[in-house]
Amino acid sequence: MRARNVTDGVLWVGSIDWDRQLFDELIPLPDGTSYNAYLVQGSDRTALIDTVDPTKTGEWHGLLDALRLTKVDYLIANHAEQDHSGSIPFILERFPDAKLVCTPKAKGMLIDLLHLDESRIATVSDGEKLSLGDMTLEFIHAPWVHWPETMLTYLPERRLLFPCDLFGSHLATSELFMSDASRVFRAAKRYYAEIMMPFRNLIERHLERLSGYDIDIIAPSHGPLYDDAQFIMDVYRDWVSGPLANKVVVPYVSMHGSTQVLVDRLIGSLADNGVVTVPHRIAQGDTGRLAMELVDAATVVLGTPTVLAGAHPQVAYAAMLANALRPRVMFASIVGSFGWGGKAVDQLLSIIPNLKVELLAPVIIKGFPTDSDLDAIDQLAAGIAEKHRGAGVM
Ligand SMILES: Cc1cc2nc3c(=O)[nH]c(=O)nc-3n(C[C@H](O)[C@H](O)[C@H](O)COP(=O)(O)O)c2cc1C
Ligand SMILES: [Fe+2]
Ligand SMILES: [Fe+2]
User: Which pTM does this prediction carry?
Assistant: First the structure.
């Protein structure tokens, strides 16, 4: 890719990773991703905002060569994670007079992660401004978005925010600005669920603070830019604090069909009670989809057979992931089948302490479901519907 014009004096100088399928060895990337970096060319000084993943450093050389860029005064590192910081050493070498600008916390982390020369780094405090001549960069410390060292960079003369990972989406596209709102909405929701949801309380505060800034354009570090900043700020507000959906997410495994019958009954019975179910067959499913469904679900029901005296390891994994992602879910239960005995329920409950849920009585049955087992599932469904009504989600 070549550099692209974002607005007067601001260029996109990133890299698109069309083929990447997995992030952090954890997050599936069905649509690839991009690493967005930006060049802000003021009348007196030039700043580069973030860099690209180290796997793209070689390609990035070409983009910068084509620009015939002779000088970078400041390299702004909003975030120390390597998908944005990984090419910093190459920039510091290419531009020996460039100063790296970051938060005090990021300074230590960048030295730890990239073994940078301390003398090249200048730290900035929250709210500090840096003049580029006719343009100014203002730094907004935003810890835990999604690492402790993060900051956002604001360019008031262009009403433009560079929020790094916040508001991003893992979406490789040659469109600079978002055009297909529903596609970007889904990609951004998936990304929020996987990366930002665990920090939703802090993000809510950062959103409040950002509402005091005049922002037209948001230029994140992954995915397309937003020329309607309000769009993505509104959906984030909804995800962190909007109403929950009348929805039950059911991550489950069934080896020989018994737990499957329970799940099928639960889907039908919840539908009769006016509640939507999202079944998620873990072994074949995409964990990003599961995370995304958890953003606004009111209830989660884990479905597991007993395996070697405990829960199926795939269900334990899904429970561990849900616990780490801290969705706003209010109610939980467990359904499943066993052959002779075990501690699947206790084990799963011990995995999800972060979910501040009310537990509805689990339905754990022996062998293949009988009519009375199915009645118990009907009761669970009716109980969930009642809870949803009481909580105002239906
Ligand atoms: C590999 C394996 C290990 C199992 N370990 C246990 C166990 O430790 N305790 C138990 O009660 N049942 C155990 N079972 C039996 C299953 O829990 C039982 O067949 C259950 O009905 C399976 O539910 P499903 O049809 O939804 O897979 C095991 C089954 C398999 C295949
Ligand atoms: Fe990150
Ligand atoms: Fe990132």
Answer: 0.95
